[in-house]
Amino acid sequence: MIHVICATDKLNSLAVHVPRRGVTEPGGILEEAGLRVWAGMRVVVVGAHVERHGVLLHHALRNIGRALYFYSTDTRPRPHLPDAENVTVKPANTTQDSPSPSSIETLLREANSRLTVYKRCLYCNASKAGVQDLYSGLLKEVTKAEARQWAVALSSDGDDQHDLRGHLVRVVGLRYDPYTRYNLSPLGPQHPVEPLTSIDFSILNSVSLGLNLTYEARPPKEPQFGLPLSNGTWSGTVGILQREEADFSLVLSPTPGRMKVIEYSRIYLSESLCILSPRPHAVPQYLQLIKPLSGWVWVITAAIIVCWGVALWVFREVWALDEGREGAWQILPRPPVQLGNTAGGRALASTTPHFRQGVLYGGWLVFGLVLGTAYRSSLIAHLTVITKLPPINTFEDLLARDAWSWGMKNDTGTMILYFTTATDPTRKEVRRRMKIHKLEEGMKHLMEGGYSVIEDIFVAQVTVSSRYTYESGYTPVHFSTSNYPTFAGLAWGFRKGAPFRRAVSLRKQRVMEAGLIDYWTHEAVRATTEDMIREAGGRRSVQASAQQDTEGGGPVVLSLQHLQGIFYLLGLGLLAAIATFARELLQARPRPRPCRRLC
């Protein structure tokens, strides 16, 4: 009943024999074989006289644009054609050579004496599929030119790939600012939406104008991009295309799982993730005291103080023994005070006239003066130009930050798949510690501090510009310098076998080469931001605060707020000095001497 007329291992042409009882049986076989997914298939139908609309307009050929129907009115028996009970389906290869005019002419010479030929067209019947008459007459009157015309009709795409003649396509798209923006119809979500300025609708308007098609866009029944279900089907937009309830969708990233159930057009934009974090702020006040010197300088200074103090104590002990005095145990509490005064830059009035002690104290005095001067000058510099914490620009920065959390909105697209299908340990750890919430909730935690949000780069730009930016242009949100592309990028998904998918891809390629994608992206971000600001009643009118000045990175006016830690340290130092001085007074109280008895 169904015969392959190509001798290659790639199936690109079919000859269908229609029996006198009708097209129901062969049409059902073709539908079950999945002929609908091979839009490039060449089909030749031969057989008894059947109504042409029942043959070439059968539902199994709904995606086929190259099909011919030959039938004869001769009643003589035809050459026997072997029946095929089963149909073996192989991938289509539209690049194979079509039947030559000579082979078609030979086939016709062996057929009946009178021939009628029809051609199937996709959009010739009021932008719908129709049938055109190619030939009706005696077989002996068929010329080589006519036979060549039939062969061309099978091999070429014709005008159907460049002019869809106002054909109406069904478009589905989940609202995803600024990619797809629209207003729902007041009649309900089952009615076409009203498109707004957005990236995908700008591309769709250009494609529809170039291909002469019309479209009706509707939202998906489930507000999801699409996730696999346990029964093998998909939810959301992918599920609608899988069930062929729409012709194609807007903004849908290709993934290995999705490409098994739907087809994709050319990728037109890269989808990247960024990390939103609080803008780097100044270090806490208590850290301002240790920032003037680096860590290794503090370690060396502490080691020198300890070693020098121990050396002074040992030398005083030895010198006391040489001079026959009591030793250094009675003056042990004094060196800490003397060392502290010397390190602060104050001269030390030595109580001993010994020359060797003067050399030691002199060297310690020089060290204290140099260290104190370096510390004070560096402290003033750090208080003038505020030191800030390092920004978060990568996933590694997130994991290295102590007491830090992050999250992402509840996504049903490639954002969550980017982490759930990760194989590297960094993304796995980020996913393990990630929180799932709404975008508004995550931004609220971000503004409170100690929190980051992972979001699409264009969605993040619109959100921050419209809701978290002051009139002065200042924003407390920091964008990471490193972006992470998810899978291949953004494309449009098509139901399998859509005959206009290649034409749409070529038209999108022209738009990309003209540089219009970048322009439309900028315009969509701007329009979306303005609409969100208008809905919120305007930007925040609060002017830049002192925190903005300190976060700017430039010189600022030194105020008492910057010196809080210094005053705290000064107070603690005075308390420690008073306590030490009181202790020395108590230890230096004269002891009563025993009276000598006179004999």
From TrEMBL:
Entry GO terms, CC: plasma membrane
Stored Pfam families: Lig_chan
PANTHER family, per database record: IONOTROPIC RECEPTOR 100A, IONOTROPIC RECEPTOR 20A-RELATED
Location of the Ionotropic glutamate receptor C-terminal domain: 297-574
Location of region: Disordered: 80-103
Highest rank taxon of the organism: Eukaryota
Bilayer topology: Multi-pass membrane protein
Name of protein: Ionotropic glutamate receptor C-terminal domain-containing protein
Source species of the chain: Scylla paramamosain (Mud crab)
Primary site of residence: membrane
Compartments where located: Cell membrane
